[in-house]
């Protein structure tokens, strides 16, 4: 797996919570198993203690994105460095599913929360250092607060998905039309 692809772990973890909607999809071990399955990791050895640990990591990762968007790049980097120190990676060379030898960042012997936090932090660090801190984003479509990594050529991404982009554009169109009708 390309190391930068592990940044998706961070994005997926942060997006398990939608603060603007008051929803949280990380409450049980089954929720963690679904998260692990979504990134292609076998959901083994998930315990009840993994839930609060991953929720705490999620809050810190959200702070990385929020600080980056607010221009507090030093704070974003400091928070990410704290996660990297607390959850170090344990790289290993592996080959599976007919793929050539490649690097995996987490030791299978680690607990689910530790392993996930380690690869999420390292993946986000790789993306941040290769693209720039300003490429970390929080969706502009209200009430969505999902995060994303902007990999666009012109650094123009403002929404987490096409769905949010469309919803925001339609709302802006309707607001303009309503304003013209009022004139």
From TrEMBL:
Q: What is the annotated signal peptide range for this record?
A: none
Zinc finger CGNR domain spans which residues?
135-177
The family database entries (PANTHER family) matched by this protein are listed as: BLL6575 PROTEIN (PTHR35525)
| Protein name (database record) | CGNR zinc finger domain-containing protein
Protein species of origin: Streptodolium elevatio
